[in-house]
Design goal:
Length: about 475
Amino acid sequence: MPPAQFIPGKKGSLAKRLKQLSPAQWLTLFYALAIFFGAGLLATPLAARGEPVAFIDALFTATSAQCVTGLTVIDTGTRFSLFGQLVVLALIQIGGLGITTFSVYLFIYLRIGVGAKGRWIINETLMHTPVGSWRELIRGIVVLTLVIEAIGTALLALVFVPRLGFWPGFYSAAFHSISAFCNAGFSLFPDNLIGYRDHALVNLTIMVLIILGGIGFLVIREVMAWLGSRIRNLRHPRRRNIRISLHSKVVMVTSVFLIIGGAFLIGRLEKDNALTGMPFLEVMWTSLFQSVSARTAGYNTVDLNNFRSSTLFLVIFLMFIGASPGSAGGGVKTTCLALFFAVFYNRLKGNPHTSLFRRTVPDELITKALVLVLLAVILVGIALFGLLIAQSPDLTHENPREFLACAFEAVSAFATVGLSVGLTAKLNVAGKWIIILLMFVGRVGLLTLAFAIAGKTRRFSARYAEENVMIG
């Protein structure tokens, strides 16, 4: 076959294969390409201070930034140059918004349009109910993100600028504001935010940014619309109020319960241990901050190595639950936890259906939540097993809390949290690869990755005769 005919044939074959990719495969491909591109930039001499960063460390950092996790094997503020830090910041911002959201916004801006794949990806990433205008949705997400991050930057600059100088302080404020809202947990300070644990403005600003980034863009948008309707109704009482959707109610109620409950338990468990000797207000700020951060952000204002094993187990639970759907955070999501409690409550009452806030939840959604949690438990269990093997090849156990440390690291990576009890810096090459894969799967999503591996789903499947099996 002549070369002139052979080459176009190959290109056509590649284009055809790309067109045949499922939306889940496109989403996975987008994240992977961004990570490797970012790793290539971080591995260049321009991105480092001193010797260039090893590629495995650059890949680890790029994955952690793109997946808005916050786990680091090298210190971001001292090891990377300004260029390297800006690459990390760009990956955090793109990862927080979601590559799909960012890409679709660019397509709309360039008037290219959004196809069926783009609409499916946005719907799976952001939507629980359809909207009339995709253009308005994506533009609103980007504008809302920039406005919230700008407000956070201004508030943090009031603290950082007097201490660090104008440009270093403003840059640190912008970096931490973006990192907090995207639930990334990256910090330019070697001790994270421990030096500011008694500072009310820093604590409040970072916590509010984390919460807003963790409840989801659509919840924020819906609450703002609801508040606007209430204000308008004060002038025009006959107007009808905007109803808060079931999704937003579940997200807000569950988030408040986890934040307050987590803070109370952390304060009670550590009052005579890690928090001993602190003034009451400092204990309150530290407990509340760690409860908020443990859900998906990865910032810390106290050394977690000083926590009791029971407190670390509580933090593992909070990390595993994570943030809410359509947000910058990871985990199995707050809605899954709420649905599980709703199922138990309704079954105990003898209700065959699952009702929540006077609404019936579809059985298909309950099944999906159950599958998601089971897949997460299996994945974390396999990763924990591999991590224990990789980090203890000689079967020595110098640290009596080694199992807990590995479990903490695995859940933190999967839930894209970024908290660690010191194991990240000790990871070998095999351990780094395990954490990289966990962060990637946690950010892309278990169900999305499963669909990407399985390929196209069948609309119709065979249904055989029913037969019971014993359980319990």
